[in-house]
């Protein structure tokens, strides 16, 4: 089992391979955006429907763009068939990942 360290009051935690992001996905929205928080997760609205993995692929692409990393650096590691997902940002520093995602959504 790999270790992770949670940043206090955050949806991001450190991991030996990068940063883990706890995400709540709302598929079938009007557009792609960070839309605040839901419980202890970052809420992400996606235009793609939850059909045949389309929302998962859109989630990876959107987060990669928001974090200025290639899509290959973003991987859904838990929750492929759920709205609640854990996403690994390979090589990402947790503090940096959190700051970029908050900036993307205009969050504090």
Low-confidence stretches: none
Shape: globular
Helical region count? 2
Give the termini distance in whole angstroms. 32 Å
Residues in β-strands, percent: 35-45%
Main sheet record = 7 strands, mixed
Name of the top-level CATH class? Alpha Beta
Helix content: 10-25%
Number of strands: 7
CATH topology call? Conserved Hypothetical Protein Mth637, Chain: A
Total of domains? 1
Instruction: Output the helix-strand order.
Output: EEEEEHEEH
Structural class by helix and strand composition: alpha+beta
Mean pLDDT across the residues is 93
Output the radius of gyration: 13 Å
Corresponding CATH superfamily: YggU-like
**CATH architecture designation:** 2-Layer Sandwich
Short description:
The chain is α+β, with helices and mostly antiparallel strands and 108 residues long. It is built from two helices and seven strands.
């Amino acid at each position: 089992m790999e270790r992770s360290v949670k940043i206090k009051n955050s949806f991001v935690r450190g991991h030996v391979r990068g940063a883990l992001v706890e995400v709540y996905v709302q598929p079938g929205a009007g557009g792609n955006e960070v839309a605040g928080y839901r419980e202890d997760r970052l809420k992400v609205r996606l235009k793609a429907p939850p059909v045949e993995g389309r929302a998962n692929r859109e989630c990876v692409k959107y987060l990669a763009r928001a974090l200025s990393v290639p899509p290959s650096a973003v991987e859904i590691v838990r929750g492929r068939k759920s709205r609640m997902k854990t996403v690994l940002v390979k090589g990402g520093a947790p503090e940096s990942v959190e700051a970029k995602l908050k900036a993307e959504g205009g969050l504090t």
